[in-house]
Amino acid sequence: METLQRKILQEGHVLSGNVLKVDAFLNHQIDPILMQAIGEEFATRFQDADITKILTLESSGIAPSLMAGIQLHAPVIFGRKRQSLTLVDDLYTTTVYSYTKQTSNDISISKDYITEDDVVLIIDDFLANGQAALGLIDIVNQTKATLAGIGIVIEKGFQDGGKILRERGYRLESLAIIESLEEGTITFRDEETN
Amino acid sequence: METLQRKILQEGHVLSGNVLKVDAFLNHQIDPILMQAIGEEFATRFQDADITKILTLESSGIAPSLMAGIQLHAPVIFGRKRQSLTLVDDLYTTTVYSYTKQTSNDISISKDYITEDDVVLIIDDFLANGQAALGLIDIVNQTKATLAGIGIVIEKGFQDGGKILRERGYRLESLAIIESLEEGTITFRDEETN
User: What is the CATH number of the domain that holds A178?
Assistant: First the structure.
């Protein structure tokens, strides 16, 4: 997705440890125009899949999921990283380890909002080692719904998540794939070799 | 806002302790059609204010803020409830006590995204005792930007937050004001007596 790649080059910052900071438009400040385009792109890529629900994780997955949900006419459910007092019973839960934060979080969703009749699209902002995506897949499996695929805004192609998901046969659509951040330079993978 | 009131009556649940659970369309599952209407309503109410930035809190404030941001052509910044490794320096920070969760959280935003030239609209999903809104106001004051007002999806009119903010002279626009949840019945305040 060319507009996204351009935005990453213009406003992304490479920090030490292969961290790509995109707080300017995705993870802290949200560019609503770009986010609309991201939602439209996800909708185009999954328009044949008859999506009935979108599943994501708080917080940075919410904006791209909502924009895709508007296009696909599908409600968005965001998994919570810890339980709140108003959401305690009847949960599907899984545990996700975050390498960035070096902590494990339980993520959970209410059993009320995804049933076995649903066709679910998972959306997240980043794919690195795949822990969050695998956690969301585990939740979809618990619901017995059909998993249509996984939509990712930015995949770090030099980490294992994308490889793991593709090898397991999941349909993975990443709007931008970073091949390398070495020496502070952002290099994208060619679209053809996704 | 009549469509919102209707949705609250149809899909909201009153729990013990004056808790209104709206996980079906606002706090856990997001109804994209309703959220579009909420964004349009905020935009209409603040269309004369020349908003340049919208400030909210993760996670449930993100969806209504993004929809308002699209209408008002303004980027959205969401305050984080704890610091992440990619966001440590140059923060505006304040402390917010959550009566629901009985914990204090530091919320922070990067100094990069709001400057003294901005006109800021604060948006949040709920207003109860006003702690979160006062925290966001504190952050806007630290930025020296102009605060245009506060947009709330659901105000609990029987708690003090709305009274405090109006008495201090802030422009507060609540799309639905709950007058009472007594005996499990949802009663709205008349629009005229806002």
Answer: 3.40.50.2020
